[in-house]
Every structure is written in C-alpha cells, then in structure tokens.
Amino acid sequence: MKATVRAHPNIALVKYWGKRDEALILPHQSSLSLTLAPIHVTTTVEFGAPSDTVELHGHVARGSERDRVLRLLDAVRVQAGRDLGPAKVVSRGDFPMAAGLASSAAGFAALAVAGRAAAGLPADTRASSILARRGSGSACRSVQGGFCEWQRGERADGEDSYAVQRFDAGHWADLRMVVAILDRGEKEVKSRDGMKGTVETSPYYPAWVKDAEAEVPRARELIAKRDLEALGELCERNAWRMHATSLAADPPLCYLNASTLGLIQHLREQRKKGVPVWFTLDAGPNPVLLTDAAHEIAAEALARACGAVDVVRCVPGGDATLLSEHLF
Ligand code: PMV
C-alpha cells in the first residue's frame, strides 16, 4: 500500500496567528492563502513496512519532527479502522528550506493526502485538510490550489476547522508572489512558540483576532474582483498587525531585521513611482512580494537591490496531486 503526492506551499494573505487548542491545532481566527507553484514537496507513504521510518529532505527524522509525522499517520490508521502495519515515509522539497516559506505546510498536506491514499481511503479534500491541519496548521490550506480559506470552526473536536477553496489557480493567473530571501538563517523563535507567547501575553491579541476575522471576507471580495492594489494594501495591513501583536508580547517578539525594513521602505518608494508591488511577511525576516506578471522581474530586481541573497518567483499553484512515480 504505497502512494505518492506532490503539494505546493502556500502564503497567507490574511495570517493565522494563535491557537485556541494546542493539541488539535485549532486557530482563534480564520485565514486566507494563495497556493504557490512551481515549488513543491513530494512525499511517498507506504504502510506494511518492516518498521516506522521517516526521511525528510535527505535526513532521517528524529524526536518531535518524527513524532509529528507518525502522529498524523496514527490518525490515518484510525480513519482506516484497521491495522496497517508500520509506515515508511520519504519526503523531499525543491525549494530552499530556510526561505521562511512553510515547507511544513506543503509537507503535511502531501503526507495527509498520500497517507489516506496509501491506506486505501477515498479522496476527500475535507478529511485531508483536517488531517494536514493536525500536522501543521497552515498545511490545511495546501491540500487545494488557488485561494483557500481556513475556516476557524466552532467545535471542540475540530471537525469544522478546515480549508475550503474559494477560487482556483486559474482565477487570477496573472498574480505573482516573489519570495525575497534576505536571511537564510533558521528563525530564532518557531511560529508555534511565537504564536503561543503572543496569545498568552500580548494585550493586543484580542484585537488581532477580531480584525483578522473581519479581513477574510474583505480579501475574498478583492480577490473576486482581482483588485491588486486593494489586496496589496490589505496584505500589508494584516502582516503589520500580526507583527504588532507579536511585538507587544512579553518577552517581545520581533521577526523583522534591518534589511526587512529596508526592503519595505523601498517598496513604498517604488509604489510612488507607479510600480505595483506590496509585501506580506510570515514569522521570519523574508518578505514575499505581491505583484503582477508584468512587474515580477522588477520585483525580483528590487529585492536583490535590497540585499536578497536568493529570490523565488511563484505563480498561483494547483491542488495536491497523486503521482504514479514513487520516491522509493
Ligand atoms: O502552520 P504554522 O505552524 O507553520 O504557522 C504558520 C504561521 C504563519 O506562517 C506566520 C501564518 C500563516 O497563516 O501561514
């Protein structure tokens, strides 16, 4: 029983920041993202292996990294309702892991879809999104392509907390996301610790939750109209507010560095000159620039001029898909 799936990472336009349930990975607010191609992660899962083994990006996973993968497969075993035996997992990505792009999002989305297929379970985007969410929250938005909305849900068991596709990748084929890698270093505080500290200590956190929830339908409307300028402004506002609530945590959490601010400042000047380019920023120093096809080369050039050591140009990506070729 072997299956292989390719999934793309996603970039949140309205961020997820903070859990209401740490174990099930349930968010306080909804979020909305764009799936990014051509970068991807490919994962092969086989049940009935001699022992549980997990190989991620060329190394044998250990400790909590291994446990997260095996926990997700335990949930697949429960869904299958039978003993599937030990599992072998091999996963590989084709983009710089330190880019601050959540490789874990693509990885857990691929693992969830491949795990279900290897167990003989039928294709089911909702079930796969819920499974992927339990590996890493943002992964629930990488099961499908295009623009996906992770609805926070209300239930304590998390069965209503999953992502739904609002528009497919073809809806806005002209949109471009350019990842500006300013710093390749590992981030000092992982998202999961950063958001926990923010939820527990930031006096601004309740305001963040209320605001982000209200931005999701607004972003959806702007995507429907393909209004790049208004969506760019919304993305920047939402990223600033996520970072503002984190800066107000105790101890304070600052993911930006001097070159991040330099690039942001430069974007403002470029916009005054008529270049349509905006940024968003996850829990790290590397901004992702939002622009259109006609300006992606200009966006790359200005990222490099501001110190980017590498640049990854992305287009809207598609669904996680089953492949006939396996990694082992
Ligand atoms: O899913 P995680 O634990 O990698 O957290 C993702 C958090 C952000 O990337 C900052 C925002 C988001 O919605 O992707």
Gist?
One of its GO terms (biological process) is isopentenyl diphosphate biosynthetic process, mevalonate pathway. The chain has 328 residues and is of the alpha+beta class.
What this model shows, in words?
The protein is an alpha+beta fold and about 325 residues long. The protein folds into 2 domains: about 1-170, Ribosomal Protein S5, domain 2; about 175-315, Alpha-Beta Plaits (2-Layer Sandwich). The protein is about 35% helix and about 25% strand. The chain is built from 8 helices and 16 strands. The chain has helices spanning about 65-80, 105-120, 125-135, 190-200, 205-225, 230-245, 260-270, 295-305, and strands at about 1-5, 10-15, 20, 25, 30-35, 40-45, 55, 60, 85-95, 145-150, 160-165, 175-180, 280, 290, 310-315, 320-325. The strands form 3 sheets. Strands 2, 5, 10, 11, 12, 13, 14 and 15 form an 8-stranded antiparallel β-sheet that branches. A 6-stranded mixed β-sheet has the order 8-7-9-6-1-16. Strands 3-4 form a two-stranded antiparallel ribbon. The longest helix has 21 residues, at about 205-225. It starts with a strand and ends in a 5-residue tail after the last strand. The mean pLDDT is about 95. Bound molecules: (3R)-3-hydroxy-3-methyl-5-(phosphonooxy)pentanoic acid. (3R)-3-hydroxy-3-methyl-5-(phosphonooxy)pentanoic acid (PMV) binds near residues 15 and 283. Keywords: ATP-binding, Lipid biosynthesis, Lipid metabolism, Lyase, Nucleotide-binding.
